[in-house]
Each structure stands twice: as structure tokens, then as C-alpha cells.
């Protein structure tokens, strides 16, 4: 049995203003109990404009909910209009940051080199990156998903030392399953998540590979979470649409237990 604590992260994407953020985190905190937090680390990833409100709420009410951001600048400071630096996120006590989400790769043309710089920027500021990888439909149809994901992983981890790599979280999100209701089967998730772990063992060591949490993301809901989470190399979920409703997110966090 793995010692890795499952991680269930809710990526709010561009949803919820700071007032709605407070309401959603309060609802979530009210619904969760100590048993839930023993079973999984619960993370929310709100938009930048919500982070200060979430920080104040989590601190003030001593909540066990952990939070982070959806992106980080590759730069530390300067004339980069619209960007948010790692040190700004660290000041807001962000524990995690998404890096290389497929929507960033698609709409903002982020490539593996930029993703690699962002991974390093996160670690430089004491923030754990949740590195997103995943193939599009054409790649899946060609049966090239493992090769594709491993190439993204290699690119993102270039020159990242083992003592940092062992803390990273990798989220396997097949692009064809994001927001489509088309969830990958537990076997599809296991195939790629186990390949990611094997590559981490090659790049670093079996210890690093054994420490890293590998998540699945893409149309995860309360009813399909238990099957996916039962797989050996799946250590949690990166949830989009279903994390916007507290009760559905709680179901995922409990993956099968009531
Ligand atoms: O970051 C989360 C993913 O993109 C999954 O989104 P989804 O659960 O709406 O498919």
C-alpha cells in the first residue's frame, strides 16, 4: 500500500469572483470533517483575484483546506504586464501552482521550455508545481499517448534536481477528456500514470518515483472517482467542472466513502 496521501485538487478555472470564492470555500469547509482530511489533501485553485480572500478565510478560520494558483510567471519581476510572480504567490501563502495546464498550452501557446521555466520559478519560491501533461485526441487515436506525455515530462523537468522533483505533483489530463464528459477509463489513467512513475524512476530514482503523486484529470465526477482512484499509480484527481459545486467536490474527495 502506497504511503502517498491522495490529493484532490479543484481547478476553478475562470469561475467565481472573490465573494463567490469565500462562499464556496466556506461551504466546502462546513461539509468536510477530520476523516476526510485524513483520507486526502484537499486543494482549491481559485483565480488570482480570489487568493487574498481565500488566504484570509483559511487563516482566520484555521481551515485545513489548502490553496494555490492556476499559473505563475516565468519571470521574477519587471515589465511583464498582466503577469503574477512566484514571490507574489508565496506572499499569499500559496502551497501549489498549476503549471502547463492544457488550456495554457493551447490558448497561450505555452511550450515545454516555458513550462520548465515555470516549474523552476515555483520551486524557487517554495511553491509546489502541479505539472499538467496530456495528449490530444489525434495522439490518442494514434496510440502515442505514453510517448507524448513522457516527452512533456522530460521537457518540464529539464535540470530540475531530485530534491525538488520528489515534491512535484504530476497531473495526467488527456485533453480529449477535459470538460467533455468523456472520462478516460481507470485502465487508461493507470497506463499513463504508471508510465510517468516509471520515467521518474529512470530520470531520478525509485525513491523519487515512489514519492511523487500522480493525479488524473478530465471529467472526474463523484460517481467515476472511486474507480479511477482505485488504480495503483493514481494518487488523486485534478477536477474542473465538478469542483464548482461543493457537494459534488466532497463526493470526489470521499471517493466512495460516505
Ligand atoms: O484542471 C482540470 C481539468 O482541466 C479537468 O476539467 P474537467 O473536470 O472540467 O474535465
Description:
With 258 residues, the chain is an alpha/beta fold. It contains 13 helices and 8 strands. Helix 1 (18-31) crosses helix 13 and helix 8 crosses helix 10 (186-203). The chain is globular, with a radius of gyration of 17 Å. Glyceraldehyde-3-phosphate (G3H) binds next to strand 8. Residues 11, 101, 173, 178-179, 217-220, 238-242 line the site of glyceraldehyde-3-phosphate.
What features would you highlight for this structure?
13 helices; 44% helix; binds glyceraldehyde-3-phosphate; TIM Barrel
Write the layout of secondary structure elements.
Layout: E1 7-11, H1 18-31, H2 34-39, E2 41-45, H3 51-60, E3 66-69, H4 86-91, E4 96-99, H5 102-107, H6 112-124, E5 128-133, H7 137-141, H8 145-156, H9 162-165, E6 169-172, H10 186-203, H11 206-211, E7 213-217, H12 225-229, E8 236-239, H13 246-254
Glyceraldehyde-3-phosphate binds at residues 11, 101, 173, 178-179, 217-220, 238-242.
- The Cα radius of gyration reads 17 Å
Estimated structural class: alpha/beta
Q: How many strands?
A: 8
| CATH-defined architecture | Alpha-Beta Barrel
- By CATH reckoning, the class would read Alpha Beta
Low-confidence stretches: none
Distance between the termini: 22 Å
The H-level CATH homologous superfamily, spelled out, is: Aldolase class I
Overview in brief:
The protein has 258 residues and is of the alpha/beta class.
Amino acid at each position: 500500500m502506497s504511503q502517498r496521501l491522495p490529493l484532490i485538487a479543484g481547478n476553478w478555472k475562470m469561475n467565481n469572483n472573490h465573494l463567490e470564492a469565500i462562499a464556496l470555500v466556506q461551504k466546502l469547509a462546513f461539509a468536510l470533517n477530520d476523516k476526510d482530511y485524513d483520507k486526502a489533501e484537499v486543494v482549491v485553485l481559485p483565480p488570482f483575484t480570489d487568493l487574498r480572500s481565500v488566504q484570509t478565510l483559511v487563516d482566520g478560520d484555521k481551515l485545513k483546506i489548502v490553496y494555490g494558483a492556476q499559473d505563475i510567471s516565468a519571470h521574477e519581476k519587471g515589465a511583464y504586464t498582466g503577469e503574477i510572480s512566484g514571490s507574489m504567490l508565496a506572499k499569499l501563502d500559496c502551497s501549489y501552482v498549476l503549471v502547463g495546464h492544457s488550456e495554457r498550452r493551447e490558448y497561450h501557446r505555452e511550450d515545454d521550455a516555458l513550462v520548465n521555466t515555470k516549474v523552476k520559478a515555483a520551486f524557487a519560491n517554495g511553491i509546489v508545481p502541479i505539472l499538467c501533461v496530456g495528449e490530444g485526441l489525434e495522439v490518442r487515436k494514434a496510440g502515442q499517448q505514453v510517448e507524448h506525455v513522457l516527452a512533456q515530462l522530460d521537457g518540464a523537468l529539464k535540470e530540475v534536481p531530485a530534491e525538488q522533483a520528489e515534491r512535484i505533483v504530476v497531473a495526467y489530463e488527456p485533453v480529449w477528456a477535459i470538460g467533455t464528459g468523456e472520462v478516460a477509463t481507470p485502465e487508461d489513467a493507470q497506463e499513463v500514470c504508471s508510465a510517468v512513475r516509471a520515467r521518474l524512476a529512470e530520470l531520478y530514482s525509485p525513491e523519487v518515483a515512489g514519492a511523487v503523486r500522480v493525479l488524473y484529470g478530465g471529467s472526474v465526477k463523484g460517481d467515476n472517482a472511486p474507480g479511477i482512484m482505485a488504480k495503483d499509480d493514481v494518487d488523486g484527481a485534478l477536477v474542473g467542472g465538478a469542483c464548482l459545486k461543493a457537494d459534488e467536490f466532497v463526493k470526489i474527495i470521499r471517493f466512495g466513502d460516505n
